[in-house]
Every structure is written in structure tokens, then in C-alpha cells.
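Justification of computing resources. Each target in the renewal requires a structure prediction run like the one illustrated here; the chain below, 148 residues long, is used simply to show the kind of job we budget for.
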Amino acid sequence: MKVLLTREVAGLGIPGDVVEVKDGYARNYLLPRKLGVVPTPHELARFGDLRSRYQAELADRHAQAHALAEKLAGVELLFTRRVHDEDKLYASVRPQDVAKEIADRFGVKIDPDRVRMEPVDTLGEHQAEILLYEGITAAVKVIVSPAA
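Resulting C-alpha cells:
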């Protein structure tokens, strides 16, 4: 059965695509959830505009992610923590802390799930990788110093 997608469906296509799927998948999943419609001439014209707007939005997201990656390139985030013997931290630096610091410094909200880093429980320099958008990442340096 041919279906015109109204929303992005992972592994199938983007809004405005006409795809061939099994009848049961279309009737039981795509159509009831309003992820697709039957491709009549009226619907094709209606979603042609949606497809162009969607592609423009994707290009805009990609450009914003590249701009943010350039801003974050080589950035050093400084954290102060209390330490006990052998320079171990009482409270580790977590991805939530890195995301909050980026939001405070650059005004861009980053989901903590997109921050990839090893657990930081010692003083010194550490690396964190920020997943910004499909295939676009930024590496930041996390520096932990003792609180005075």
C-alpha cells in the first residue's frame, strides 16, 4: 500500500514522501497515528509545501549545530569541588553539570543525555563530547580544581 507520510518516521522517510509499506502496517500503525495518509492528488499538493518547509527546517538545524560546534570548540569549563584525601572529589562532575554550565555560558540548552564523558571524580583536566546534531559533535575540556 502506498502512504504519504505526514511526519518523519525513522527508517521510512520524511514528511511528503510517498512510500510503499505493507497493508497491515499502514492500516494499524501509520494511518491511525496520523503519521501518513492515502496519497490522493489533494493530499500530495497539500504536503508538497510541508516537505519543502521541513527540509528548510532541517537545513537550519544543521547550520545552527555547526555554529554551536564552532563556539564550543576548545572551550574550557571550570568546576570547583570539595576534595578529601588523595584528591578525590566529594561530589563528581556529571553530564548535568556540564550541560548547565554550557546553558549558563552560551544560552543554549543542551540535553544532559547528549553529553558523553567518563565519570569525573578526581581533580585535573578531563574531556567531554557534546552530541549536537546528526554527526555533529563538539569536544570541551572539563577542568576540576579544589574549592578554597
